[in-house]
Design goal:
The chain has about 210 residues and is mostly beta strands. It has helices spanning about 20-35, 90-95, and strands at about 5-10, 10-15, 55-60, 60-65, 70-75, 105-110, 120, 135-140, 140-145, 155-160, 165-170, 175-180, 195-200. Helices cover about 15% and strands about 35% of the residues. The two termini are about 30 Å apart. It binds N-(carboxycarbonyl)-S-(naphthalen-2-ylmethyl)-L-cysteine (MD3) and fe (iii) ion.
């Protein structure tokens, strides 16, 4: 593993955090999770407009979104089943990168094809903001955009490649962020191409 780069206050970037073998092992574990908890298309609150990103979750709680709003819930929105457990490999990444934080209940799995995007937003559906969010990227490189805590302020962009990790804590925890584009064909990790992003989160106050 390589060292951290502090890109902004509270945003630590770990390029190449997972080596190829670690990426492959995690990819295969996520594949098994997606077989049990099939990807769904989240919808915007009120309008029902579909996201371009498909999602699933593992852990005790999963993030879902539909006409009724954004929320965490213990079951899959379509199958009604409990989310699969969070793999030990992911819990170990949390322990290493968020030492001392209470354990994460949720890992959101975002699935991007070449055309998928995620608009600038804040992550504020958790009750606990003192714990960081820990992110891992697999597959095709993405262009990530990161701003301040107010919408409309200046932003910076950088690429997230396969195996890269980030922690978003402190003043970065409520910063606006999004994914502007996916560089199709930039990675050989996923047979069908595309990108997987994993975000582990502490939801309840701990
Ligand atoms: C900055 N996911 O799931 S991960 C999300 O690549 C999300 O799929 C993006 O934004 C993705 O909510 C970005 C990096 C990330 C995650 C959480 C953050 C950046 C963050 C929370 C606060 C600030
Ligand atoms: Fe986010």
């Amino acid at each position: 593993m390589s060292g951290a780069v502090e890109i902004a206050s509270g945003l630590s970037y770990y390029p190449g955090y997972l080596d190829r073998a670690g990426q492959e092992a995690l990819r295969d574990e996520i594949g098994a999770i997606l077989a049990a908890a099939p990807p769904f298309v989240p919808r915007m609150p009120r309008t029902g407009r579909p996201f371009s990103v498909w999602m699933s979750n593992c852990g005790e709680l999963g993030w879902v979104s539909d006409e009724k709003g954004y929320r965490y819930q213990p079951t899959h929105p379509e199958t009604g089943a409990s989310w699969p457990p969070m793999p030990a490999r992911l819990k170990a990444v949390w322990a290493a990168l968020a030492p001392g934080a209470p354990p994460p209940e949720a890992c959101l799995i975002n699935l991007y094809d070449a055309a998928a995007r995620m608009g600038l937003h804040q992550d504020r559906d958790e009750a606990e903001f003192s714990a960081p969010v820990v992110s891992l990227s697999l597959g095709d490189t993405a262009l990530f955009r990161f701003g301040g805590v107010a919408r409309g302020g200046p932003t910076r962009s950088f690429r997230l490649g396969s195996g890269d990790a980030m922690t978003l804590g402190g003043p970065a925890r409520l910063a606006f962020h999004g994914i502007d584009r996916i560089y199709a064909g930039s990675s050989t990790l996923l047979a069908e191409g595309g990108r997987i992003n994993l975000t582990m989160r502490r939801v309840a106050k701990g």
